[in-house]
Write a structure and sequence with these properties.
It is an enzyme of class 1 (oxidoreductase). This protein is about 45% helix and about 15% strand. It has about 725 residues and is of the alpha/beta class. The strands form 5 sheets. The protein has a 10-stranded mixed β-sheet with strand order 2-1-3-24-23-4-15-22-20-21, with helices on both faces. Strands 5, 10, 13 and 14 form a 4-stranded mixed β-sheet that branches. A 4-stranded antiparallel β-sheet has the order 6-9-19-16. The structure holds NADPH dihydro-nicotinamide-adenine-dinucleotide phosphate, 2-oxoglutaric acid and magnesium ion.
Length: about 725
């Protein structure tokens, strides 16, 4: 049961751009909801909030905060859950360290992040920090599978107002490079457990047996995979691709997900940094170690640490002259692809490059063809095939293209995104075995020192729920429905064995196709090119990748997506958009007080959340409120009230004014609830009459730096002052 004082709707407090937007939008939502007796509470899942909640014993009573994430983790397992989840930071080590430093400077006596822990105390602190690192929030809240699609109004708007797409030409040298052996894909083995089981993972070496992990438990029917990436094969592949890039005259780029694959991918990233600077590491390895360099933290951290070592700096420059030009995260500021592990996030980076006609930004601040290095070949074929398709057929036309919706297997830490506790960088040559409690060796691999071994799993109940959701959505839409499963991949073959009987038992097998990712990519692009629609029914990683790829091609951004998590115990989790927390937007706000964040994802989620509340609690006022939200969202689209990207033009705050105005107008105009109509009529009138005053007050603040009193842990009053600068609007909202 949820706590008796749980509000009707929980709105999450997050970080960066969406949190700034909340400072303006949430007061509006609360005021409107209160009129219908709907309470909206908040829970703090921000990076700073989670750090504070983790170390109470270091803080004063006044500084302490409850563990809101843990509370939400419980709430989502109850039928009462109704949570609006905004995107939060999934922190890399450099971000975590920066957040800790900021809090320390604000007087929070937090321990430093131990970069190389040696004492037990340091190891314990490090373990607590590591629990906050990477994608630490979503896996806790996602107790259901994922349904992401563009709302009809949003898709229609994108078709009527197509965004600019880069040109694709058949002579583009852009390509995807992946390993052909020794990667996670090639080494994968998988089995479905008949009964419930406990397992341990051990490493047998010449010196004996080391237990890597004990007490892993699986319910009956769990699909359990194991695989590894060979460090030796990875290094050889990276070295080869660096040379090939140079020969081809393209930019070198690496695409991965160090935030979400928080154990394996930073290690792979570290290999790339080391390979790139190979001569430097060969010559100065010991000195670099002494300076505390960890390649997995990126070139940015490395450059900072070698600042006082002119000889090493010179060697780095000499090495750079030998290398091909690198793809830049921010060419204006000299931030390269290998600077910070969290900066290149494949789900966003590859679609943006494909949308731009296969061009990445180079160190010369110009766009060039790019070698997109995606070491593991499990999902790389999606991008490879998309690139091949656009080279052959030219760019997609967003004015006529159909849509690709997604139904993703996500619940209960499904697949690779739940593999962190069972991922290991192998300390010595030997054999890794996964041994069940009855002594059965479920999986085993011969490995070498440095290999990255991991086990992932997917539970039966989420898999069944996912297939049933697919059946529901197919029936509701009639769209071409494709399970993106590769019968030649070990894990997928196990899933197919579960999927097919369910489809057959329900008599709907003929309504679904099953295709490997490459074929499914082609089929989906062909389908939408014809103006028809399709549902991609995918595992967890492809859920993540595709719900950026297709929205970015179809709508220019994934920020506008509807993202519903139907919680398995009956509650609702409404994620806003499918993108992230947009650090660039915060930078712009701080420099010129313009916030280009588009809250359309929040508007869509709010509408869904209110309708869900209406159904779950028979709350007719919530239904009226929710319907009016949808009308307001439509109004934003119809009248082009979304934020502009440029300073001096209407921004996020203006769009919230319009949202409030259209919402109030829709409530005043409806006839389902006379009290609400009467309550909102004067508000709608006041908002309309004050248009010039409000937009004038909002415009007046732009063009100068804005002070938020922090980055990760902003000052609430300062943020409110920045985000609610219109006294006229504030007086109406109250
Ligand atoms: N569900 C979650 O909690 C998620 C969290 N993240 C986290 O977010 C952080 C940043 O991730 P990153 O990959 O840079 O991706 P972002 O989605 O934050 O940013 C990529 C670009 O997408 C555009 N964009 C995204 N959202 C909006 C919006 N609402 N309105 C307008 N434009 C938008 C912006 O383009 P432009 O600048 O051109 O306007 C932005 O620069 C990371 O810490 C990451 O882990 C990422 C994905 C999901
Ligand atoms: O949890 C994260 O770090 C990112 C999540 C994400 O990218 C997504 O769900 O689309
Ligand atoms: Mg994503």
């Amino acid at each position: 049961m949820a706590e008796p004082n749980t509000p009707d709707i929980v709105y999450t407090k997050v970080d960066e751009a969406p949190e700034l937007a909340s400072a303006s939008l949430l007061p509006i939502i609360r005021t409107f909801a209160a009129a219908a007796g709907v309470s909206v509470g908040t829970k703090d899942i921000s990076l700073a909030g989670r750090i504070i909640a983790t170390f109470p014993e270091h803080l004063t009573e006044a500084q302490r905060q409850p563990d809101d994430l843990a509370e939400l983790g419980e709430l989502v397992k109850t039928p009462e859950a109704n949570v609006i989840k905004l995107p939060n930071i999934s922190a890399s080590v450099p971000q975590l360290v920066a957040a800790v430093k900021e809090l320390q400077a604000q007087g929070y006596a937090l321990p430093d992040y131990p970069e190389s822990p040696s004492t037990d105390e340091e190891k314990a602190i490090r373990a607590r920090y590591d629990g906050i690192k990477g994608s630490a929030v979503n896996p806790v809240l996602r107790e259901g599978n994922s349904d992401r699609r563009a709302a009809v109004a949003v898709k229609n708007y994108a078709m009527a107002n197509p965004h600019r797409m880069g040109e694709w030409t058949s002579d583009s040298k852009t390509r995807v490079a992946s390993m052909s052996k020794g990667d996670f894909f090639s080494n994968e083995v998988s089995a479905t457990l008949d009964g419930a089981a406990k397992a341990k993972i051990v490493l047998e070496t010449a010196d004996g047996e080391t237990v890597l992990k004990e007490g892993v438990s699986y319910p009956a029917g769990t699909v359990v995979d194991a695989t590894f990436m060979s460090a030796r094969a990875l290094d050889a592949f990276l070295a080869d691709e660096i040379e090939k890039t140079k020969a081809e005259g393209t930019l070198f780029s690496l695409h991965m997900k160090a935030t979400m694959m928080k154990v394996s991918d930073p290690i792979i990233f570290g290999h790339a940094v080391k390979e790139w600077l190979k001569p430097v590491f060969e010559q100065y390895g010991d000195k670099l170690k002494e300076l505390g360099v960890n390649p997995a933290s990126g070139m940015g951290d490395l450059l900072e640490r070698v600042k006082g070592e002119p000889e090493i700096v010179k060697a780095i420059e000499a090495c750079r002259d030998q290398r091909p030009p690198m793809y830049m995260v921010n060419s204006d500021k000299g931030i390269t692809n290998l600077h910070v592990p969290s900066d290149v996030i494949i789900d966003a980076s590859m679609p943006a490059l494909i949308r731009d006609g296969g061009k990445g930004w180079g160190p010369d601040n110009k766009q060039h063809d790019t070698n997109c290095v995606i070491p593991d070949s499990s999902y790389a074929p999606v991008y490879d095939e998309a690139i091949a398709f656009f080279k052959a057929n030219g760019k997609l036309n967003p004015a006529t293209a159909g849509t690709v919706q997604n139904l993703g297997l996500m619940a209960q830490k499904a697949e690779e995104y739940g593999s962190h506790p069972t991922t290991f960088e192998i300390p010595a040559d030997g054999t890794v075995k996964m041994v069940l409690d009855d002594g059965t060796v479920l999986h085993e691999h011969k490995v070498e020192k440095g290999d990255i071994w991991r086990s992932a799993s997917a539970r039966k109940a989420p898999i069944e729920d996912w297939v049933n959701l697919a059946i529901e959505r197919q029936k509701a839409t009639g769209f071409r429905s494709i399970f993106w499963l590769d019968e030649t991949r070990a894990h997928d073959a196990e899933l197919i064995k579960m999927v097919k009987p369910i489809l057959e038992a329900k008599g709907v097998a003929d309504k679904f196709e099953i295709m490997a990712p490459r074929e499914a990519t082609r089929a989906s692009l062909e389908t939408i090119t014809k103006g028809e629609n399709t549902i991609a029914i995918t595992g967890n990683v492809l859920r993540d990748y595709l719900t950026d790829l297709f929205p970015i091609l179809e709508l220019a951004t994934s920020a506008k997506m509807l993202s519903i998590v139907k919680l398995m115990n009956g509650g609702g989790l409404f994620e806003t958009g499918a993108g992230g927390s947009a650090p660039k937007h915060v930078q712009q706000l701080m420099e010129e007080n313009h916030l280009r964040w588009d809250s359309l994802g929040e508007f869509c989620a709010l509408g869904e959340s209110l309708q869900f509340l209406a159904d779950a609690r028979n709350n007719e006022k919530a239904r009226v409120l929710g319907k009016a939200v949808d009308a307001a969202t439509q109004g934003i689209l119809d009248h082009d009230r979304s934020p502009s990207r440029k300073v001096g033009e209407p921004d996020n705050r203006d769009s919230h004014y319009w949202f409030a105005r259209y919402w109030a107008q829709a409530l005043a105009d409806q006839s389902d609830d006379a009290d609400l109509a009467a309550h909102f009529a004067p508000i709608a009138r006041a908002l309309a009459e004050s248009e010039a005053a409000i937009t004038g007050e909002l415009a007046a603040v732009q063009g100068r730096p804005a002070d938020l009193g922090g980055y990760y842990h902003t000052d609430a009053d300062k943020t409110a002052a920045v985000m609610r600068p219109s006294e006229t609007l504030n007086a109406i909202i109250g």
